[in-house]
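User: Please go through the entry that follows and flag anything odd:
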Amino acid sequence: MRAPTLILLAGLAALPLLAVAADDPAVAQLNQRLSALQFNPDTAEMAAFERVQAQQAVAALEKAKRRDQELARYLAERRVEIAETTVRARLAQRESSQLERTRSDLLIEANRREAARARQEVERLRMQAQIQAEEAERLRLAAENEILARQDAENALTSVAGKQQARVSAAQQNAAKLAREEAELVSGHKLPASRFEARGEVFTLTGDAFANGQAALSSGAANQAKALAEYLNIGRKGRVRIEAWDNATGVGQRRAEALRDALVAAGVSSNRLQVVGRKAAATRARSAEIVVAP
């Protein structure tokens, strides 16, 4: 039975219950409890089937003969309790869903703000490093005629640049971490594992990303590609190199192209993507790599 029909039945059944002044106080009390559900705007459309059953049970109690009244009263009370419990459960479920949506929205917004602050910090540190490097170079040139002074300046440059580069690297990794969390929240999927190297951030798809000798992405790898596309669109703007492997001729290239197509379908600009297929064995730990240039 459809919900609108149940609600109509509930409304029709409630009319005689409200009009009749029952001799049995229990009938009046049960009718009052059902009316509280029926005329509350927050619960009027909830548990219509259970309320119809409860109203029928109360009506049966009102008409029951003396010998059947105890059983009829028990059934009516249980039906009313079931209707009330069902309404409370659905109210709690609705509130829980609303709270969960609010929580997700707040988490996404907080991560976006934190990622923006992290990117600003990266830029500030980069400019600071550039200024310090230029100042160190000026000092080095000024001390060029004196070997010891020049050595001191070069040592200072190395120390400052090293510390500053470490801070820039830490800030970049923090920004990448926050972008990663935002991408996973927005896409609803986990990113593949990654590591930082001289060539950039390297994401690795494991051997189960493709079926043996096939180029089509598995469902798990397709979900990882969606999360990776979100990550590339949020915070990593560099060029992307896709490399894939397989022993069979041409399969590695087709795998790389399948990854590229999945990223493009998820919103990544095709101009950023370069694909390379390798004729070599794909291992359990690695079947493809996505390298994001620094």
About this structure: The first strand starts at residue 194 and ends at 197. Strands lie at 194-197, 200-205, 240-246, 273-279, 288-292. The helical segments are 3-19, 25-38, 48-63, 69-142, 147-187, 219-234, 251-265. The radius of gyration is 34 Å.
